Amino acid sequence: MSKNNAKNKNIERIRRLISAGKTNQVFLELAKVDDVGYLFQVGLLFTQNGIHDTGERIFDKICKLKPDDEKAWLNKGVALGKLGKSDEALNCFNEAIKLKPDDEKAWLNKGVALEEVGKSDEALNCFNEAIKLKPDYEKAWYNKGVTLEEVGKPDEALNCYNEAIKLKPDYEEAWYNKGVTLGKLGKPDEALNCFNEAIKLKPDDEEAWLNKGVTLGKLGKSDEALNCYNEAIKVNPNLAEAYSNLGVTLLNLHRYDDAKTQLRKAEEVFSEKDRKNEANKAKRLKLLAVNASNLISRIKPLDQEFMDSLNSQSLTELKEKSLNISREIEQIIKDV
Length: 336
Hints:
Shape: globular
Structural class: mainly alpha
Distance between the termini: 84 Å
Radius of gyration: 30 Å
CATH class of the domain at 1-101: Mainly Alpha
Helix content: over 70%
């Protein structure tokens, strides 16, 4: 068996061990391995399976064995970024760029890390550098759009999303963000088209369903909005915003008992996530639905009483009855 065949066979064995959750066994096996190419393939296996901490340790080992391995620095930085260690990731991307200044992926990832630590202007410079190196780099256009949105430049962000979509028509995230941006720019009809496209590309995107619902609500299409919130909840039963929006829409439709149920659920989920302000708002809206429901139940008998009084032969009696009912309704409203 050739060395390459043996290596490929071993890689496949490691793939199975990772799938079986035996990551520690794999890492221990690598302790005495110094084949950089082999280690690189194993490191990618870990990161591709979302095991970024072990992947980072393997790429770190490669960087020590071969300090001029630009791709090892890049992948170590990506793994650190996934672990939320943006400052450490930045150091790796800087090292990668120093070794290969024309690597658009290193510039892109450096930009993402800078955006994570709140350095938007520097991030934009990195995305621009990536685009200069590779003008058809849709991810660079997309991330530039995200950053422009963050710094309050929605029109410029929109141009970037359009460019990303032109380069990759099935770029779901770009369609979604374009929809959000159009909504902020007061263009709900165009936003709706974008959310529909995003959902077509990724039917289980709860945020797209949620924002489609919000947009339909703005267009006065409450029943369709309700369907979207229910779809979002179907995808993610813990999406508190969907329950909240569902409750508010039902409240506006005067379906108070249904609104009460959804707002109670929103309050529960927000509380579980320790989002106190949102939980309190949901609670206040729930109480509004409860009070409105109580108000309706107390007014209905009075309404019937008034209709019965129309059969009275005495106009004076009818007027007096009407005044009494009006006073009772006013008192009920004050109580609420």
